[in-house]
Amino acid sequence: MIEVQSISKSFNGVQVLEDISARFEQGKVNLIIGQSGSGKTVLLKTIVGLHVPDSGTILYNNRDFFSLTTTKKKELRQEIGMLFQGSALFDWATVEENVRFPLDYFTNWSMLKKQKRVLFCLERVQLLKAKKLMPGELSGGMQKRVAIARAISINPKYLFCDEPNSGLDPQTSGVIDNLILEITKEYGMTTIVNTHDLNSVLAIGERINFIKDGKKWWEGDKESILSTDNTELRSYLLASEVVRKANLLEDH
Amino acid sequence: MSTFFHIGRYFTFLFRIFAKPEKQRLYLKNIFTEIWYLGIDSIGIVAIISFFIGAVITLQTAYNVTSPIFPLYLIGLGARDSMILEFSSTIVGLILAGKIGSSIAGEIGTMRVTEQIDALEIMGINPASFLVMPKVMAMLIFSPVLNILSVFIGLVGGYIAVMTTSVIPVSEYLYGLSLAFIPYYMFYSIIKSVIFSFIITSVSAYQGYYTNGGSLEVGKASTRAVVHSSILILIFNLILTQLLLA
Fold it and tell me: Is B23 in Cβ contact with A104 (below 8 Å)?
């Protein structure tokens, strides 16, 4: 479980996150939703430690991330897998080298054992045939799947996904969503996904946090989101064609 | 104020580069890869430029010597010392700042804007050390080779120029090359090459590492890498000359 307590963050005097608290549960897909520029990515990057918050604490199973020693922090980072918006595959390496990279770096496994794990992860994302290709030779959806394979290669306890569906067609988005949901259940990970795709929200949102202008406005799940009376969230949902056309939002 | 900020951040960056590597075997492999990409891949450009500059220095000196009392063998000696003292270290350094500096800043800058550096950091890897240290080490190891090669090819260039134009007898040129050779000059030249290589790789990597934004910023970082490296090479050339030759 990850707990965020009263996180605030500003850049050059501009307040981007304001007093955000949230709990992200283990074995569930926890979503952070909101418009572009609402502070979702900054929140996610602050949770993984890429940004240092101005105030507040982040607890990984009761371990305060920013109070840990460098060594302990390094150990904790090895329990984290992250899927970036642009996939962030290493462009100097083939698909299988990308997936093997964390194993090369953090394990003393034999080459055979590492290769077995790589093939297992690639099989899991159905990309075994692409193992010899370079990232530049893959489509956007395939890159995302390789990034998922790399993220799960060292059995992380925590998985972070920043806009996993950006730039993907609805069908491929569905594949990625299902994959995230399946591996979360399979490995019992604490998964946090940033998204503004309402299809994803309704498909995999087991815990949902709605952020607007750097503040948290609502918390719930996919069952309760459509019956919300939170005006900020309702106006966000009504901006979605999916919700509007299907008349999904309940009246209040 | 901004200059002091960058100087401070550059030295902090250097500390991160030379932090103890976690997986030394991987670093060693990367050093050899970088020797290939940065060092061996630069042999061609260094050889071509050194050959022609060596030939031109020899011809220019020969055509400007009009006094009959000036010994012709001094043309060979002048070409040799020009190559060793200045060309093979400083001018080659400036050329490498263009070739290697822009490449390093572009590569690392692209990795920054495509979040590959963030990915390394999240994995618990020190990206500065993992990405930059092998490049710095590769050039520290290989720059003396490029320096010696440049001197040798420059003198071959002079020899071929003398042979094909008969501006002076070949024997006079060869005698000048071997006359009053001071080995310390070679040491001075290699020391300069090594320091210039450090400047090129670390300054360019710094520019790439702290790139913000998109492809436009990567381009600007590459330009800054070349300009800053070149200026620092010229400043350190002056300092090292005073320190080592005075």
Answer: yes
